[in-house]
Amino acid sequence: MNSQPDAATPAEQRKPALALRCGYGTDRGLHREMNEDAFIAADPVFAVADGMGGHEAGEVASGVCVRTLAAVPELAPGERSATASILQESLYAADAGIREATGSRAGTTLSGVVVVEKLGVLYWLVLNIGDSRTYRLSRGGFSQVSVDHSAVQELVDAGQITSAQAAVHPRRHVVTRALGTGDEAEADFWLLPIEAGDRMLVCSDGLNGELSDEHIADILASEADPQRAVDELIQAALRSGGRDNVTVIVVHAESTA
Predict the structure, then answer these.
(1) Residue 185 parent element (H or E)
(2) CA–CA distance, 146 with 202 (Å, rounded to integer)
(3) Is the pTM of this model over 0.85?
(4) CB–CB of 40/71 below 8 Å?
């Protein structure tokens, strides 16, 4: 008697047929003495922390941040169970750790994406605090998902300046929310269904401070390999002046069906 394969369960039928490819890199830039950026790029979490404080303090702040994230059980390799509330609790812990390690002398921004699964559907859970950024290239459209916590973004939101004016405004580097400093350590979150072909870009402001969104989108769309896209984005930022540390992560979702 011929045996028949077992029928797939409903959960198995819903299981996402997607695979992730990732590229990442960081550079001190051409004018900074040290690199105060830190990052984590290990499925399910891809995030960039841009330390502020200089002379090791900023480096300590960003390092504490990414190490705190790496220790969260729901962010262990292959996990898909993180939630916004779990992530926020880890950010509170990072905020406290940074204050203790630096005597409240330093802080860090954080932006990134965590891959989560709900009812068999995969999502990008984007988180942001400060002015590092997360972008999405999907179905040919490129957009910034995160919203900067910055003085110039508040002026843009109030209609007092345009986005183009914000890019050259003298207060463009003033951050209004960060971990380890200030009064607020709450992040913003967005939940986006993952589609085959999606490409997420996470970066410190050393990238978007040198390159326009149009330039970033052109490179991201033209380089099929995520690592080559990262390398070209960093080199383009350096060619444009490299005035700050620059860190880039690119995560690409592709169908395995």
Answers:
(1) none
(2) 10
(3) yes
(4) no
3 versus 100: the higher-pLDDT residue is: 100
Residue 11: count other Cβ atoms within 10 Å of its Cβ: 9
The strand pairing partners of 203, in sequence order, are: 133, 248
Q: Which of 72, 10, 61, 47 is nearest to 201 (CA)?
A: 47
CATH numbers and ranges of domains, the chain: 18-255 (3.60.40.10)
Look up tokens 């200030």; give the residue. 182
Pairing between β-strand 107-118 and β-strand 121-129 as defined by DSSP bridges: antiparallel
Q: What is the pLDDT of residue 182?
A: 84
The label of the residue with tokens 């003495």 reads 33
What is d(CA 199, CA 238) in angstroms, rounded to the nearest whole number?
A: 23
Beta bridge partners of 112: 47, 127
Please name the amino acid found at residue 122. Answer: L
Per the structure block, which two tokens stand in for 216?
């970033």
Using alpha carbons, select from 79, 19, 16, 17 the residue that is nearest to residue 45.
79
End-to-end CA distance of the chain: 31
Residue 83 vs residues 88, 123, 149: alpha-carbon distances, Å: 9, 11, 22
pLDDT digits (tens, 9 = 90+) for 6-25: 444 444 445 568 999 999 99
- Helix pair angle (226-239, 213-222), 10° resolution: 150
Q: Read out DSSP for 198-248?
A: -EEEEE-HHHHTTS-HHHHHHHHHH--SHHHHHHHHHHHHHHTT--S-EEE
Cis peptide before 10 (omega within 30 of 0): no
**Measuring CA to CA, which residue among 140, 139, 143, 141 is closest to residue 126?**
143
